[in-house]
From TrEMBL:
UniProt cofactor(s): pyridoxal 5'-phosphate
Organism phylogeny: Bacteria, Pseudomonadati, Thermodesulfobacteriota, Desulfobacteria, Desulfobacterales
Family as reported in the entry's similarity comment: Belongs to the class-III pyridoxal-phosphate-dependent aminotransferase family.
Catalytic activity: taurine + pyruvate = sulfoacetaldehyde + L-alanine
Name this protein carries in UniProt: Taurine--pyruvate aminotransferase
EC numbers: 2.6.1.77
Record keywords, A-Z: Aminotransferase, Pyridoxal phosphate, Pyruvate, Transferase
Amino acid sequence: MSRDITQAFKEANKYVDLIEKNDADITREEREMVAKETVENFRNHVNKGFLEYRKSVTEKNSFAVTEWTGQGSILKDILGREYIDLLGGFGLYSYGIRHPKIVAAVKAQLDRSPQYSQEMLDPLRAKLAQVIGMITPGDIQYGFFANSGTEAVEGAMKLAKFYTGKKGFIAMLKGFHGKTLGSLSLMGKDVYRQPLLPLLEGVQHAPFGDAGAVERILKSSAAVGNEIAGIVAEPIQGEAGAIVPPDDFWPRLRELCDKYGVLLIADEVQTGFGRTGKIFGVDHWDVTPDIMCFGKALGGGVVPMSGFFSTPKIWEVMEPNPFMHTTTTGGNPIACAAALAAITVLQTEDLPDQAAKKGEYVKGRLGKLKEKYPGILEKVTGKGLLIGMEFVSDEIGYQLSAGLFARGVITSGTLTNAKCIRFEPALNIPMETLDKALGVMEEVFKEIKGE
């Protein structure tokens, strides 16, 4: 397209004016304009592939479903159509959409200072680090804040290499840790890795849940001098389909790391802060990692926020030169305000307990659907409200996802397992909303069976 600075300013002003309007004052014509322009702008300026992937633009009506607002577990598009959110922003909305307490804290901090000077000491970052140090297991005490989960994993990898002086890592097949080059090196699926090879050297993969395979890699690596800095794993694999490892897996990883002088790195980006029915995923097995990575729900679903934390002993390597790892916007005041408020919500609403109880309820209902409509749902996996529904084929998984969407329920597949649909709503989703969504799900099961 040709350069047109004057028109660019007009387009920016048009949308700023729209954002500043009360929803009641936005006309039907303006709403239809947004829906139409969004499709055009994705096609011409973002990625045409999204238009093929997104169910919202394949729905058979004149205007694409264009996200506009939401509250709790309900999303609304620009034209006012409502959807029950069972996706939860891929784990982002653990507290629901626009939780009032979190939004209030962010607005208050926004009026005070939205960023920091980079030179003065910022109290909210310091306080949030203290609070996280108090709720994490073992001697986890020091941390660094960033903006996204992949940044947290990158930081954890740097810290492990820096502390141990070793370069290798063991990651898990089907694991997901982000898509920047370091974290992508850990990914356990070839479709995202292969076009970008070579990635970070020294990364080896073991089957998730197989501690024996991990030990064999550690032994052979030590024998040939390929030393391992860290073992990286999700407590429960999220993008692989909410896969829960055997109960001895995480305790065995801890033993192996102690035996071979390797750091244990838990990627809690998706499992952390109540999602699986405990505050952290590793809490199911009473294991203390050496480094923990956080993201997604940490910012309360309001501001992007992530971090990686470790012990005083390991963190000592960061002290002589605290600028070994830096960020301009990570841990900014509004993100820290959001995270602090989110942690208070986690406690006052007892979200881990809600996730545990609702998760058991959902799995029970899904189990009944599996029995009632055979040949559709193969198995149900996960803990808490990190649930995977694995169907007998990719096609049936798509039929379910599209059928739910057409009836006003949003969900999605998992990134490294095409036939698995996630069930990952807000942890405080009301039971009546949950029941309504499960009722719609049964309607789709009936439709698939042709009843």
